[in-house]
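Note to self: the last two entries modelled the partners one at a time, which told us nothing about the interface. This time every component goes in together.
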Amino acid sequence: MNPLLRTHMLSKHFAGIRAVGPVDFTATSGEIVGIIGPNGCGKTTFFNVVSGFMKPTAGQVFWEGEDIVSVPAHRRARLGMVRTFQERMVFPGTSVRENLQTALIQHGVDDIGDEAVTAALDYVGLPHQVIDQLAGNLSWGECRLLGMALGLVLKPKIVLLDEPFAGLNRVGAERVTSTLRRLRGDGIGAVIVEHEMDLLLPLCDRVVVLANGEILAEGTSKEILQRDDVRAVYFGGDPVARDQ
Amino acid sequence: MEEQLTLFVQYALNGIAMGAVYAMIAAGITLVYGLSRIIHFAVGELVMFGAFIALMVWEATGSFSWALAAAIPALAIIGLITERVVFRFTLKEPLTGFIVSLGLILVFQGTAVEIWSPNPKYSQPPLHGSWDFFDILVRKQSMLNLAIAAVVLAVCYVVLKKTTAGKSVRAVSDDPDASALMGIPVKKVIMATFIVGSALAGIAGCIIMTVGFISPFIGAVYLLRGFAVALIGGLGNIQGAAIAGIGLGIAESLAAGYVGPGWTDAYVFGTVVLVLLWRPTGLAGGAEGARI
Amino acid sequence: MTGVARSPLRAAGPYGGVLLLGLLAYLLPQVSSSSFVLSLATTALIYAIAASGLGFLWGQSGQLSLAHAAVFGIGAYTAAICAKQFGLTFAASLPISTGVGLVAGALVALPSLRTSGHYFVILTFAVGEVISVVEMRWESLTGGVNGITTLPGAQTLFGLRLAGRADYYTVVVIFAVVVLLVLCLLMRSRWGILLRSMRENPDLSTSLGINVPINRVIAFALSGAIAGLAGQLYLYHVKSIAPEAFMSNLSIAFLLVVLLGGKNHLLGPAVGAFIYVFLPEYIGLSPVRSQIAFGVILVIMILTAPDGALSLIGRLRERLRARRPEGGA
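The predicted structure of the combined assembly is written out below.
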C-alpha cells in the first residue's frame, strides 16, 4: 500500500548551503511519527517544504501517490495535510469563537454556531469560558491547544505538529499529550517535530532522527534510544539546549 | 551621427546632476529606514521646505552659500523636532510611524502654502554661464550641484564606514537590542539619523531650487523619486542609492529628451511599480531588512 | 453551554445603526434647508461611501491602500467619459464606473501577490501617482489639467431629479445606506470571518486552506468597486472634475477619515467623513488651515486613539459593563 505522505530525495538549500536533505520520509494516517534531532538540524525547514510554505531545492513530495511539489500550501491543506506553527499559533486579534469558526468554515461545516465551536474546544480540553476571549489574551498553553484545535477541526488525514510541547509547563504538556493520544483512534496521522524526547517518544509509533538535514536513524522509540550514533549526536556532551 | 551622440551625451549629463540629488534624498530615506524601520513619507515635503528656505535666503542675500548655510540647519532642526515630538513614539510600530509621516505631509504642505502661497516660484540659477566641450553644454550650476551632492554623499559614506559614530549607526541598524546592551545610546543614534536624513533632504531642496520651479506641491514628485532610488538601490544601502540615483536621473533625462517631458513622471513611477514587482525587495538589497 | 446566545436586538444592531443613520441623513433637509449645508452633507456622504470601502479593506483584511483616491478618481472619470463621449445616462454609466473601479482595485492589489508590508504600501502610492499622471496627460480622453465638465440635465433616478440639490442628496443617501448594508452583511458573513483571520495571521490562514492572495485581491476589488461608485456620485455632485482633485492628498484624507471614526467599526468611516467635511466649516477654517489642522489631528489620533473615535465609546461601554456585577455565566 502506498503511504499517504512520502518524500523522495527532498532537499532545501539556503544560499547554497544545505539545510535539509536529501530526505526520504513516509507517514500514513493513524500513525504517529516523531522527528527529533538537535537544534538547527532542519526539522522546521523540513516541515515548511513538506507543507508547501517553501519550495524545495530538489526532490518530490508525494501525497496519496501524486507529486504535489507544485501544489500551493493552501491546497495541500485542503487535501488533508494540515500543519501547526511553533510560535504564531492562533489569530490573536479575534475571539476564540472566530478562530474556530474560521477552521469550521474551511472544513465546510454548515452550522458554525456555538455548539460546533464548543465541541472543538472540548476536543482539545479547553474550557468553554474562553470562547468570548481574544485569542491573543490566552495563556501560552491555551494558545497551543487552540492552535491544535484549529488544525484538527479540519479533520486532516495527517497533521504536522511543530514542537507542540515547546514552552509548556507540566499541566499544559499533559493536556497536549492527551489530545495527541486521541488522534490515532480518530484515524488522524501525526508527524511531530519535537525537542522534548521524554514527552514525545512514548507517543510515537516510529521515530526519525535528523542530523545535519539528513536521516540518521529510524525505528521504534526503543530502538532509537539504544543506538549509539543517535546518543552521540543527540546526547553527546552537553545536555540538549532548548530551542531559542 | 555625431550630432546624435552629442545630444545623447548632453541628455545623460543633464541627468547625472539631477540623479545625484535623488541619491541624496534616497540616502536620507535609507538612513531613517535602516535604523527606525519607519517609511518616512514626508521627506518630499522636507525637500520642498529646503527649497523654499534656500530661495528666500538666496533672494535676500544673493549668496548661494548663505542659502545652503540656512537651509541645512533649518531642516536639521525640523528633523530633530519631528523625531522628538512624534516619531520617537512610533518606534515600536513602524506602520504607525508611516501614518504619522502622512499626517506631516498635510501639515508641511499646508504650512508652506500659508507662508509662501500656493503659486509656483522660479529663480535664476546662482551660477550663470556654461562651458562648451565639443558642442556639449556643461552648465556651471549643474557642475556645482553635482560637486555638492558628491561631496555630501562621500562624507556620509566615509562617516558611516570609517568613524566610531558610523560604526554605532551600523550596529543599531543591525541589532538595536544588542547595541543597547553594548552601551550604544540607541535613541540618540536614531535621533541623529532623523536630523541627518532631514538635512540631506534640505540640501537636495537647495539644489532643486537652482534648477527648476518650486511650489508647495512638489513633495510627492521628489518623494517618489527618492523612494524609487532607495528601493532600487535596496533600502538601507547608500552605495546602491548613489548608483540607482544617477541611473534614474540619466534614464529620466533621456526619456524627457527623446519622448517628451510630459510623461516622465509616469515612466518613473511605472518603473518603481515594475521594479517592485520584479524584485519585491529591491534590486541591490537582500531581504526587507537590508542593512546599511 | 456558556456562550450566551446573542439577543436578536444586538444581532440586528449594526443594521439598525445604518438605517438610523440613513434616516437621520434623510431628515437633514427638513432641519436645515440651506443649500450650502446640503452640499456639504452630500460631499460628506460621498466621502463616507468611499472611505467605508477603504475602512472595510483596512479594518477587515488589514490591507492599506494609498491608491484609493486614484480609484475614486477613475470612477469619476469613467462616469464623465461615459456621459461626455458616449452620452450615457447616470443609471447606464453606474455599473460601468463601479465595474471599472472594481477592476482598478483588483489591479492595485495584484502586486500584493508578490510583495507585502512596506513595499506594498509604497507600491499603492506609486500606482496612485501613475494614475494621476495619466489623468493629467491623456488629454484627448480626460481633458488634461482642465478636466471634464458634465451636467446631468433633466435626468432622473428613482423619480428624483439629479440636477436638484435636495433630490440628488436623497439619491446619495440611498446609495450610502445600500453600500453600508452590503458591507455590514459582508463583515458578518463567513467571508468576513476568513478576511479577519487573514489579517491576523496569513500563514496560519494558509495552513487552514485559505487562498490568502486571491481573497486579498477580492477585498481590494470590492473596495475599488465602492470607490468607483462613489466617484460617479462625486462627479454628478460637483459636475466638474480635474486631476488634482484625486491626488495622493485625497488618499491621505480618506485614511484620516477612516482613522477618525475607527477602522474596525462599520459606521466609523461615515462618522469620520462628517467630521472631516463639517468641522472646518463650523469653526471657520480656511481649506489650507484645515489641512494643517487635520494633519495634526491625524498624528494625534494615530498616536493616542488608533482605533478611532467610535472605539472610545466602545471602551466606555466596556468599562460600564465591567462595573456591573456579572450575572448568570
